[in-house]
## 1
Amino acid sequence: MKTAFRIILSVALVGTVCRAASAQAVDVSPPGLGAVVREIPRDMWKFFSWDTALVLSIGGGAAGIGHIWDDDLSGELETNVSLNNAMEPGHTYGAFSFQALIGIGLYSGGRLAGKGGLATTGADIMRAQILSQLYVQALKYSVQRERPDESNNLSFPSGHAASAFATATVLQRHYGWKVGIPAGLAAAYVATARVKDNKHYLSDVIFGGAMGVAAQRTVMLHSGRYAFSVVPSGGDGVSALTMVVQTR
């Protein structure tokens, strides 16, 4: 259990490159699906930035340190029977399909309820999932690192870790650390489960987590924010309209 805790703690540190943010104060108009889709090509281009370089440099350095314990941790966790049942849900939760469904659910719920902030959160998760997986899969097929269980050569980086950390950091950015900390711990749990299942080395999940963080920052710090809304304001017999523009 101490080993599992050490992995969760080390992987969770990747998420600290995201700055803290307060919860959304102003609810805006829900973004249309077309507007969300139009942002994806821009996300792919904006991913190449100094900010991404910094995040991946931190992740790469951490992965390099983690590489020292790759073989030892994989063997130790694989033989730790007490972790088998505890780690099993992590494979499902970290899957791209599951994480994408979180985004789709939040987006659809926000649209139906007229909650623009919730719909925007879901849209950002969907975009971050697509962006992270595009580049993670490209790296997998380029690097061709063999998995610890020798099942294939797609070990580096971890797609599950990227998806889980992309969602976690989007939630943190929108709603602050009260949501971000539990989401980050869930992402670290996913990363630990992948190492435990002998599907990844420690360095794989660390860099995968960094890819997820970089995708979130690209989506929320660099690209467009869909739209603006106009809300009524004024007082004392004076009517006015105020334009509210979503911040990056």
## 2
Amino acid sequence: MANGNGETRKTVAQIAKELIEQKTSIEVLKKEVQTVATVNTKLDGAIDKLTEISGSLKSMLAVHDEKLSKQEDVDKAIFNLLENRRIEAENKFEDIHSRLNKSVKDLREEVELSQKRLMCEIKELKVNLTERVGVLEKYRWIIIGAAIVLGLWAPQVFDIIKTIQ
């Protein structure tokens, strides 16, 4: 409807219809606001829980950092102990090595002395044996000579003995 001023008037039905649409929109908006409020409440709860978890994680991390630092100290102590043991073992090895070398040197010297003594004794025995063999050979030739002489005279001596008898 036109009022003559160039304005259009709305009818009551149109106004009622707009009013109902607006009420419906308001109701929808109220439900959305309630949904958003519920979501906000849930988000607040989640944020609180995340805050608690974050605090727990911080304390757990602090405990783990402390354990790690203690473990690093223990590792350093073990490393130092191992290094000391390695040095001790190396020193003992060097000591044993030097004692072993000295023992080998002493044994070598003793073996050389024993070898020299044995060689001298063998030479003495050789000289003694040579002298003895020389004496034995001399007696052998004497005995052989005597046997030859006896062998040549024996028939004549037997003949003389036969004639005497």
